[in-house]
Amino acid sequence: MPDLYRRLCVSSITIALVVCLIVFAFHPVFQYFVAGFVALLAGVAIWEYEQFAKAKGGRLIMPALIILSIVEVLSFFLNEELDGFKSLPIIFFFIAFLILFALHFEEKEGAIVDLAVSSFGLLYIAVPMGMILGILYSSGVDGRWWITYLLVVTKITDVGAYFAGSLWGRRKLAPNISPKKTIEGAVFGLACAILASYLFHLASDYAGTFHLGMYEWLFLGLILGAVGQFGDLSESLLKRDANKKDSNALPGLGGVLDALDSILFNAPIIFIYLHFMKI
User: Where are the beta strands (DSSP E) in 127-211?
Assistant: First the structure.
């Protein structure tokens, strides 16, 4: 664990920033800053994704894809804020899809691949990032608790897997795409997710509208712990195919995609749960 100190420093700053964003998320003015910050992160992640595509010969139309991604993220925020508009993310995604086609009308060669890569970028990054805002500003529940639950359970899985894999890991989990990840680390990370989910279940008795029932904490803990690690491996697959070690060169962080990889897969789970199963 040679980079542990640097990771701890960057993680401390990141946690402090995220806590501030969550605490003041419902402020009448600050909420727009929160939405803009999440959209900006999505824009940076799309730029990092474009570097992967370029390494494989893909040609994404930038900055159009960044702008479309930011608009798609913000559509989830507007969907919760504006009465009478409950399908904005779907509408904006369809419009973005049309725009991407129109931007490729002059391209005779490689249009199929470039369109596929661009559309996948919207689905892989912009939609889950928008769902983060959809969770935070969900009506009928205190979204601050649910977004905290999502982040804590997801990241405690990553931390548990990292430490257990570094200390006790022997058997490789996916050596071709992520040589440092181990089965021991993955199992311990899953156990950490379940434990964190149980602690939120205990805290839900004192958390107002946030409620995590007897079976919910186990079900969601298992799903988030497993799918989050699947998301981590999925981003590693993209990096290895593009021959990239990290998605960016941010000290102690790597890149925005490196930090968000597991959250991109877990955010849809909580979003779907809140909007179609719980409420």
Answer: 172-174, 178-182
φ/ψ of 169, rounded to 5, equals -65, 130
Render pLDDT for 14-26 as a digit per residue (tens, 0 to 9).
Answer: 888 899 999 999 9
Q: In sequence order, which residues have a C-beta less than 8 Å from that of residue 209 and are 6 or more positions away?
A: 140, 141, 142, 145
SS3 172: strand
| Closest-CA residue to 59 (of 103, 114, 121) | 114
Model confidence pLDDT, tens digit, residues 254-269: 788 988 999 999 999 9
**Two structure tokens written together for 24:** 């003041």
CB 248 within 8 A of CB 235: no
What secondary structure does DSSP assign to 22-68, as a single string? HHTTTSTTHHHHHHHHHHHHHHHHHHHHHHHHHHTT----TTHHHHH
CA angle (10, 12, 17) in 5-degree steps: 95
Cβ–Cβ under 8 Å, residues 114 and 57: no
Cα angle 36, 40, 193; round to 5: 95
Nearest-angstrom CA–CA distance, 187 and 185: 6
